[in-house]
Amino acid sequence: MTESRLNLAGQDITDRCKKIIPGQTDDLLLSKLQALIPDHPIRLALTGDEWYRLGGVVDMDGKRIANDLIEWVERTYLECGQNLQTLIDYTLEQKLIATKQTGKTLYFVVQTGTKAEDFTLIEIDKTHEVSDRMLVDENNPPDDLEEFIDPLQPFCIESFGFGHSRYTYRRKTDVKLFMEVINERHPGEHPVQRFMEDWNRSSAGQKHSMSEDWIIRPYRHTGRFGEQIVNVEIVNTHKNNLPHLEDFSGKKGSALSNVLSRFDRQAGYPFAWFFYMVKGKLVSTHSADAVYKDISGDFAYLPERDEAVLRDWISTPYNV
């Protein structure tokens, strides 16, 4: 597969998401995305953890009052003469219910080349609206608008859903371009960049596409002075259970080689144990020390390219 750029606008993806009938499956979304990108394979790599955000307002019969809870509260507060008690009385009289949006982010990978960094990550949110709470608890009314919108002790009710799941485009990340930006802002080589370069020069990179088992996910965090910092993390997407490799005491030579080879077979590609070790997932760093002692002595069971990666890690360890 030759390397190429993915010329796909976020608006194109948004349009496809809007055309999917609510309640239909992720497989249909995948097929519509693939139709947009016929020259590159695309797959659903990961379904993120469930999250929720504020929804809208409905009455006791489920009739829609507002799609946006915050907008409704602020507007109705003004209509009530900016009198909080009047707003509370009106809400209790109408027996209004606040809803919430529950969702999961779907991570789709588009493979655009053979290198570790040659893929595009498409993130799409799958959301479903459900009832959450009575908008106001008569026995514990809010003290201000902030508590009205998001109370610390809500009067929760039995949940029921509104309609079907919907898909919303979130963002698209060209990994190679994104890493170029990250490296410009990061002092020295970014660990994720080194992970990908080690992948490319190892046996793993000769046999397997990194994005089949590992994706990079951008994220933001706040610095010590309140500044917004963009960074990236490596996420493992392997779906099968793999063994923990922690105790290597007394193992060397063929015994150690067999343990690591068995792990690699279960992972599906050579030198897998090294990358799980760098991630700090399942494989102890003692494995690297043990293998290094072996290859520095009488044993030679690693290909030269993997020996070079391991020796560099021993010289300058890193993790992601």
Could you walk me through the main structural features you see in this protein, from its secondary elements to its overall organization?
Strands 1, 2, 3, 4, 5, 6 and 7 form a 7-stranded antiparallel β-sheet that branches. The protein has a two-stranded antiparallel ribbon with strand order 8-9. The chain is built from 12 helices and 9 strands. With 320 residues, it is an alpha+beta fold. Helix content is 38%, strand content 26%. The mean pLDDT is 90. It has helices at 10-19, 26-36, 69-79, 84-94, 145-149, 175-185, 191-201, 203-207, 253-267, 272-279, 286-295, 304-315; strands at residues 42-47, 51-58, 64-66, 97-111, 119-134, 155-156, 161-174, 214-222, 228-236. The chain starts with 9 loop residues before the first helix and ends in a 5-residue tail after the last helix. The protein folds into 2 domains: 10-173, no CATH class; 189-213 and 233-320, no CATH class.
Number of domains: 2
The stretches of 5 or more residues where confidence is low (pLDDT under 50) are none
Number of strands: 9
Largest sheet report: 7 strands, antiparallel
Structural class: alpha+beta
Helix content: 25-40%
Rg, Å, rounded: 26 Å
The helix/strand series, from N terminus to C terminus, equals HHEEEHHEEHEEHHHEEHHHH
Mean of residue pLDDT values? 90
Calculate the terminal CA-CA distance, rounded to whole Å.
28 Å
